[in-house]
């Protein structure tokens, strides 16, 4: 009887230790996931903020270029076409750079 009792206690201890190890492992995985999520969110916020600032700066730059071209050509239509074409080329360049950056990561 004593051997059976000791065996049951030993099995219980093993199961308890196994459960504790699994709990520790899950807590460690949670920490890793939380850390990764916080890093991702930080990068996302910083990236979107810089993108917004770049977009506003580009808008002011394009407006200034449009005003200068409209004055130089005395035709807002021609200036609009030139700026539109420049924006199209810039958009294509941004798409190509984005594909290159994403393919490397």
Tell me what you see in this structure.
With 105 residues, the protein is an all-alpha fold. It has one domain. The chain contains two helices and no strands. It has helices spanning 2-73, 76-104. It is rod-shaped and about 105 Å long. It starts with a helix and ends with a helix. The model has no long low-confidence stretch (mean pLDDT 80).
Quick overview of this protein structure:
The protein is mainly alpha-helical. The chain is 96% helix and 0% strand.
Terminal Cα span: 63 Å
- Tell how many strands the DSSP assignment holds: 0
Number of helices: 2
Describe the sheet with the most strands.
Answer: none
Uncertain parts: none
How would you classify the helix and strand content by structural class?
mainly alpha
Classify the helix fraction into a percent range: over 70%
Q: What is the helix/strand order?
A: HH
| Shape type | rod-shaped
Portion in beta strands: under 5%
Total count of domains: 1
Mean of pLDDT: 80
Q: What's the Cα radius of gyration?
A: 31 Å
Indicate the topology:
Layout: H1 2-73, H2 76-104
Helix pairs in contact: 1-2
């Amino acid at each position: 009887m004593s051997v059976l009792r000791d065996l049951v206690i030993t099995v219980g201890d093993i199961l308890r230790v196994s459960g504790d190890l699994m709990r520790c492992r899950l807590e460690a995985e949670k920490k890793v996931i939380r850390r990764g999520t916080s890093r991702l969110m930080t990068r996302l916020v910083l990236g979107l903020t810089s993108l917004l600032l770049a977009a506003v700066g580009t808008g002011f730059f394009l407006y200034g270029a449009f005003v200068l071209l409209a004055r130089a050509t005395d035709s807002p239509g021609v200036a609009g076409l030139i700026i539109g074409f420049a924006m199209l080329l810039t958009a294509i360049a941004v798409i190509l750079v984005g594909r290159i950056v994403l393919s490397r990561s």
